[in-house]
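Standup, Tuesday
Yesterday: got the pipeline producing structure tokens again.
Today: sanity-check two examples.
Blockers: none.

Example 1:
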Amino acid sequence: MMLSVLFNQPGRCCLMAYLDSPLSQVRAIASARSQLRVRTRPALDAPIVGRLAPGQMVEILGAVEGESVQDQSGWSVLQADAVCWSGGLRQAQPLQDGHFALAPVRVRRRPDGTIRPMSPRECETLFGRIEYRSQPDGSVTILNGFESRLDVLRPPLLPRPPYGATAISVHPLARPAFERVFYRLHKSGLDAGILTFDGAYMARHKGWDTRRALSTHAYGIAIDLNAAFNRYGQPPALAGETGSLERILPVFADEGFAWGGDFSAPWQDGMHFELACHPRKPF
């Protein structure tokens, strides 16, 4: 499980009696809206056995009815004797036979099949207008509070060098796609190939150049990985080389992310992934 808390304390009530079927597999994933208490049973007077941090991802094994909180009585089962109030989780994403049941992703592709990024106008239309003031170093000062709308996500691959960050900020519409990518990378073990996490949300222009449009990082829909091995403006590391991201490309592509390694010279950016489609939803 993707929990950093332990649920192995003795003397607690088992939840198996609440479930319609055995806890045989993960049924969904979700992330905490804010700090959320984990209890032994679905009631506010039940012992607390852990806490979820804002944005922390969890695997959900089932759902039970319990004490109503804010007119919502649903609780999510995290382990056989560990539950949390479902209202404290962002919308769970269901799994079927270990895979997400999703509508097909719709992207624009180049003749070679690689995914094209969205235009600045498309980004603004889909993710919202950013009012800003450019700074000499290529960063921007947000004037309309855009960054306050972003969600916090704590993926299991963090922390990673060089910054040791434990959370990232992502656009609410992009969050489910990021969650699914992180989940698949973690469950498959492919996140072992991610040596460094080099940034996600950043209010700036593309290439820190004030003459260019806003970066997709400013919208909270992009992430940089293994930067030292995939420098901006240089060819990315090849499959088999240290720092190569080739093995994780299909996971990002399945969610509609364009890869900077496919950008034309001199703009190649092999560290970079950005969402390049309308976020899709479960069937």
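Example 2:
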Amino acid sequence: MKRILMLQNAPIRRILLGCLAVGVLGTSACAGQSVTPIDIHDPVISVESRRFVADAQDAVSIARSGYDYADQELRAARQQRARLMAGDAWDAVSAEVTDSFDTLLKARIRLAELRRDAAEARVDLAQEKLREVYAETALRHDIEAYEMAPIRKTVDAALEDLSEANARVAEQLLVVDRSSRAWWKSYRGLLSQNKHPNMFFTNF
């Protein structure tokens, strides 16, 4: 995760994030009423409000970094399965053992997919919260008027989506745990037969 940028140390980053927000939030049709991004360099905006906006912008940046990481983890999990299940390393092993190992790898891929979904939900929530902050700041400084109720409703909906995504991740963790236990049970059977005792450690 990228560390949170301090306002006084990252003016260029703030400008870039503000420009990004124009495209993401200012013209979003699915978000209902259009909300104009706040320029934190506007002298009308108080220092406290500038920090409030900057923190919300940082949250979007951090959430996007989290999504990028989750996407990399998913690709790595898929590549791992392709690598471990390829070749003739499993030719002398029973289908039961091979299937249990493949089931574990697939369960981990599914977990990575759900974690990426949750990361995407965090991005959506951060964007909706930033939109809310822009609207609240505009109201506080008499820049523009917005209906806050529907804006807050979209934040609540995004929060609910994230909660559901996290619940799916938690459920899949249990699946991975069960799959891991099943694999180890099969692997212990191999050890008792003196077949490929080091396969797990050399391939996984």
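Quick observation on example 2: The helical segments are 11-26, 47-84, 95-140, 148-192, 199-203. The chain has one domain: 7-203.
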